[in-house]
Protein backbone atom coordinates (compact mmCIF):
# COMPACT_ATOMS: atom_id res chain seq x y z
CA UNK A 1 0.00 0.00 0.00
CA UNK A 2 1.44 3.43 -0.88
CA UNK A 3 1.91 5.79 2.08
CA UNK A 4 -0.42 8.65 2.84
CA UNK A 5 1.71 11.78 2.67
CA UNK A 6 1.36 14.35 5.43
CA UNK A 7 3.07 16.95 7.56
CA UNK A 8 3.49 17.63 11.26
CA UNK A 9 4.79 20.49 13.40
CA UNK A 10 7.19 20.34 16.33
CA UNK A 11 5.87 23.49 18.00
CA UNK A 12 7.75 25.06 20.90
CA UNK A 13 6.56 27.73 23.29
CA UNK A 14 8.78 30.40 24.93
CA UNK A 15 9.71 27.90 27.70
CA UNK A 16 10.85 25.27 25.14
CA UNK A 17 7.83 23.06 25.80
CA UNK A 18 6.53 21.01 22.87
CA UNK A 19 2.84 20.80 21.99
CA UNK A 20 1.54 17.21 21.75
CA UNK A 21 -1.85 15.65 21.14
CA UNK A 22 -3.09 12.58 23.00
CA UNK A 23 -4.93 10.14 20.75
CA UNK A 24 -6.72 6.86 21.33
CA UNK A 25 -7.91 4.13 19.03
CA UNK A 26 -11.71 4.17 19.60
CA UNK A 27 -11.80 0.44 18.79
CA UNK A 28 -9.05 -0.24 21.34
CA UNK A 29 -9.26 2.51 24.03
CA UNK A 30 -6.23 1.23 25.95
CA UNK A 31 -4.08 2.09 22.91
CA UNK A 32 -3.02 5.72 23.57
CA UNK A 33 -0.17 7.81 22.22
CA UNK A 34 1.12 11.39 22.16
CA UNK A 35 1.99 12.80 18.75
CA UNK A 36 2.87 16.07 17.09
CA UNK A 37 -0.01 17.99 15.53
CA UNK A 38 -0.45 17.32 11.83
CA UNK A 39 -2.09 15.13 9.27
CA UNK A 40 -2.58 14.22 5.65
CA UNK A 41 -1.96 16.50 2.69
CA UNK A 42 -4.73 17.41 0.30
CA UNK A 43 -4.06 16.59 -3.36
CA UNK A 44 -1.49 19.05 -4.75
CA UNK A 45 -1.02 20.79 -1.39
CA UNK A 46 2.47 21.95 -0.44
CA UNK A 47 3.60 20.21 2.77
CA UNK A 48 4.35 23.50 4.53
CA UNK A 49 0.74 24.51 3.86
CA UNK A 50 -0.42 21.09 5.12
CA UNK A 51 1.54 21.54 8.35
CA UNK A 52 0.15 25.03 9.00
CA UNK A 53 -3.43 23.99 8.09
CA UNK A 54 -3.37 20.86 10.25
CA UNK A 55 -1.88 22.74 13.21
CA UNK A 56 -4.69 25.31 13.01
CA UNK A 57 -7.40 22.69 12.53
CA UNK A 58 -6.24 20.46 15.39
CA UNK A 59 -5.13 23.05 17.94
CA UNK A 60 -6.42 26.48 16.93
CA UNK A 61 -2.80 27.69 16.76
CA UNK A 62 -2.34 29.80 13.62
CA UNK A 63 1.24 30.47 12.51
CA UNK A 64 2.43 32.53 9.57
CA UNK A 65 5.67 30.72 8.86
CA UNK A 66 7.42 27.47 9.61
CA UNK A 67 11.01 26.95 10.56
CA UNK A 68 13.22 24.27 9.03
CA UNK A 69 12.29 20.77 7.94
CA UNK A 70 13.51 18.59 10.83
CA UNK A 71 12.83 15.02 9.77
CA UNK A 72 10.69 12.65 7.74
CA UNK A 73 8.96 9.78 9.47
CA UNK A 74 7.57 6.67 7.84
CA UNK A 75 5.34 4.42 9.89
CA UNK A 76 2.97 1.49 9.47
CA UNK A 77 0.38 1.02 12.19
CA UNK A 78 -2.98 -0.50 13.02
CA UNK A 79 -5.84 1.90 13.78
CA UNK A 80 -9.60 1.18 13.85
CA UNK A 81 -8.91 -2.41 12.84
CA UNK A 82 -7.11 -1.42 9.61
CA UNK A 83 -3.47 -1.15 8.61
CA UNK A 84 -2.20 2.31 7.65
CA UNK A 85 1.02 3.53 6.04
CA UNK A 86 2.07 7.16 6.59
CA UNK A 87 4.99 9.30 5.56
CA UNK A 88 5.13 12.65 7.36
CA UNK A 89 7.47 15.60 6.96
CA UNK A 90 8.07 17.31 10.31
CA UNK A 91 8.70 21.06 10.48
CA UNK A 92 9.88 23.24 13.35
CA UNK A 93 7.97 26.28 14.60
CA UNK A 94 7.96 28.46 17.67
CA UNK A 95 5.20 30.62 19.15
CA UNK A 96 5.42 33.47 21.63
CA UNK A 97 1.76 33.13 22.69
CA UNK A 98 0.33 29.70 23.58
CA UNK A 99 -3.30 30.80 23.44
CA UNK A 100 -5.11 29.42 20.39
CA UNK A 101 -6.24 32.18 18.05
CA UNK A 102 -9.26 30.20 16.83
CA UNK A 103 -11.39 27.22 17.77
CA UNK A 104 -10.04 23.90 16.48
CA UNK A 105 -12.10 22.34 13.67
CA UNK A 106 -11.79 18.59 14.10
CA UNK A 107 -12.87 16.03 11.53
CA UNK A 108 -15.21 13.26 12.68
CA UNK A 109 -12.20 10.94 12.98
CA UNK A 110 -10.31 13.49 15.12
CA UNK A 111 -13.37 13.99 17.32
CA UNK A 112 -13.34 10.24 18.00
CA UNK A 113 -9.64 9.90 18.74
CA UNK A 114 -8.11 13.23 19.91
CA UNK A 115 -8.66 13.48 23.65
CA UNK A 116 -6.13 15.98 25.01
CA UNK A 117 -3.69 18.72 24.03
CA UNK A 118 -0.73 19.44 26.30
CA UNK A 119 2.56 21.36 26.38
CA UNK A 120 5.42 19.09 27.56
CA UNK A 121 8.84 20.10 28.88
CA UNK A 122 11.86 18.01 27.97
CA UNK A 123 12.14 16.84 31.60
CA UNK A 124 8.49 15.70 31.55
CA UNK A 125 9.03 13.79 28.29
CA UNK A 126 12.16 12.13 29.62
CA UNK A 127 10.51 11.01 32.87
CA UNK A 128 7.22 9.86 31.35
CA UNK A 129 6.22 6.27 30.60
CA UNK A 130 3.71 7.48 27.98
CA UNK A 131 3.94 6.37 24.37
CA UNK A 132 5.32 9.12 22.12
CA UNK A 133 5.47 9.26 18.34
CA UNK A 134 8.13 9.10 17.26
CA UNK A 135 9.28 6.87 20.14
CA UNK A 136 12.58 8.76 20.42
CA UNK A 137 10.89 12.18 20.64
CA UNK A 138 12.54 13.03 23.99
CA UNK A 139 16.02 12.46 22.49
CA UNK A 140 15.13 14.34 19.30
CA UNK A 141 13.87 17.32 21.32
CA UNK A 142 17.00 17.26 23.49
CA UNK A 143 19.15 17.27 20.35
CA UNK A 144 17.13 20.11 18.83
CA UNK A 145 17.37 22.25 21.97
CA UNK A 146 21.13 21.65 22.29
CA UNK A 147 21.80 22.34 18.61
CA UNK A 148 22.85 18.73 17.97
CA UNK A 149 20.00 17.84 15.59
CA UNK A 150 21.34 17.98 12.06
CA UNK A 151 18.18 18.15 10.00
CA UNK A 152 16.69 16.70 7.99
CA UNK A 153 16.86 13.09 9.09
CA UNK A 154 14.74 10.02 8.28
CA UNK A 155 12.94 8.00 10.94
CA UNK A 156 11.38 4.63 10.32
CA UNK A 157 9.25 4.26 13.42
What does the oligomeric state look like here?
single chain
What best-fitting shape do the alpha-carbon axes yield?
Answer: globular
The N- and C-terminal alpha carbons lie at a distance of 17 Å
How many β-strand stretches? 9
In round numbers, the mean pLDDT is: 91
- Strand adjacency order, main sheet: 4-1-6-5-9
Summarize the biggest pleated sheet. Answer: 5 strands, mixed
Separate helix tally = 4
Report the uncertain regions.
none
- Tell me the β content: 35-45%
Rg over C-alpha atoms, rounded to the nearest angstrom:
15 Å
- The secondary structure category is alpha/beta
Q: Helix fraction?
A: 10-25%
SSE pattern, N- to C-terminal: EEEEHEEHEHEHE
What would you say this structure looks like, in words?
The chain is α/β, with parallel strands linked by helices and 157 residues long. The protein has helices at 47-59, 108-113, 122-127, 137-146, and strands at 4-12, 18-25, 28-35, 38-40, 69-79, 82-94, 114-120, 132-133, 153-156. The longest helix is centred in the middle third of the chain and has 13 residues, at 47-59. The protein is globular, with a radius of gyration of 15 Å. The two termini are 17 Å apart.
